[in-house]
Amino acid sequence: MNKKMIMTPGPTSIHEDVRLAMAKPITNPDLDPEFYEFYKNTAEKIGKLMNTDNEVLILSGEGILGLEAACASLIEPGDKVLCIENGIFGRGFGDFIKMYGGECTFFSGDPRRSIDIHKLEDFLSENNDFKLATMVHCETPSGMLNSIKEISLLLKKYNILTVVDAVSSIGGEDVKVDDWKIDIVLGGSQKCLSASPGLTFLSVSEDAWYSIRNRKQPIIGYYCNLNIWQDWYKKKWFPYTQPISDIYGLEVAVDRLLKDDKKFKRHERIANAVRYALTESGIELYPKDGWSNTVTSFKTPGGIKEEEVRNYLVNNYGIMIAGAFSDLAGKVMRIGHMGENCREEKVFMTLKCLDKALRSFGIKLKKEIHKEFINCLD
Ligand SMILES: *Cc1c(COP(=O)(O)O)cnc(C)c1O
To answer: Does 75 contact ligand 1 (Cβ within 6 A)?
Structure first.
């Protein structure tokens, strides 16, 4: 039995009720009318979580599938696409834009700060001939949150379609799809929702559907093609057999969040205390502003190898935290305090063990991390 405490920014630990839901007997999802109702209901609940009346689809594959499906379905060869980025996932959108023939223009921000809305405003006043723009709500590797509300409303003034990766924010940070007029927002099961990895979901606006329906060239591929989902409910037809057990789990995970009216407060309070505790102990947070309430990314303290610290935590305490990848590899360490991980006792335990681990590697801390955490929560 794997009894590790996974305090990573996804996958996150799963509540027992979610696990049990995944163990329920299954039906044939293609042939059972009840399953069509169940799928639709679950999609609508996700819509509620994202504050949208737009259609929501649940796709069989994790977050990257949602991201690729949005690009594949909206982008035609030669389309001008703006890639707004200040981190690894934001920049990564560019690869998908190019893969589907888009002409990609990057608007690059400071990797340690949220996207500067005034700079973007200046940029757009001279360059606004884009069909769509991509962006990331929470840049998970750097622990940074972008103001997708301001960015999306600004882009809408220029009639630019918006695609937002909110994989590591939905459920932990408020996402108001309709008020903020975002055309496609995509999330994943394994982050703040605390369901098992394997599902992505996305909301698709009327404008996005219009654009998808009125393409000059057909969408390349099948699995990433959102157009094949048109009228699935009316036709009682799915493009492929649905991962029924995963969706059973997802529904319970979403229910848990919908009835938890303190979820955003809880994320804010715990994230704030984590940042306070690390900073007071002399550890530098990676972002200089725009700190996310779902994940904290901090610079690896002086001269040590973050991988060794992480191994120490797993081997001695069974606690997993994360490093990062790409240009942040080795430079930062990350604690995921999202979804089911966003509980005082789990975060306290993690910080207490991190404190011990860092000291064992000879790092001089100014304070005891876990004690500062508690002090801040009081
Ligand atoms: C986790 C995550 C994804 C999904 O990517 P995987 O690493 O394959 O799970 C996409 N976007 C963001 C911002 C994420 O945090």
So the answer is: no
Radius of gyration over alpha carbons of the chain, in Å?
Answer: 21
> How many angstroms is it from 66 CA to the middle of ligand 1?
10
Flag whether pLDDT at 1 surpasses 70: no
Do 278 and 233 belong to one domain? no
User: What is the tally of structural domains in the chain?
Assistant: 2
Q: Is 81 exposed, middle or buried (0-12, 13-18, 19+ CB in 10 A)?
A: buried
Any atom of ligand 1 within 6 Å of the Cβ of 188: yes
Q: In angstroms, what is the span from residue 330 Cα to ligand 1's centroid?
A: 19
Tokens of 199: 């599902």
Cβ(186) to ligand 1 under 6 A?
no
**Residue 245 to residue 242: CA distance in whole angstroms:** 9
Q: Are residues 38 and 146 in the same domain?
A: yes
Banded pLDDT at 2 (limits 50, 70, 90):
low
Q: Are residues 188 and 332 in the same domain?
A: no
Taking the centre of ligand 1 as the mean of its atom positions, its distance from the CA of residue 208, in whole angstroms, is 22
Specify the pLDDT at position 282: 98
Question: Could you read off the pLDDT of 210-223 as tens digits, one per residue?
Answer: 999 999 999 999 99
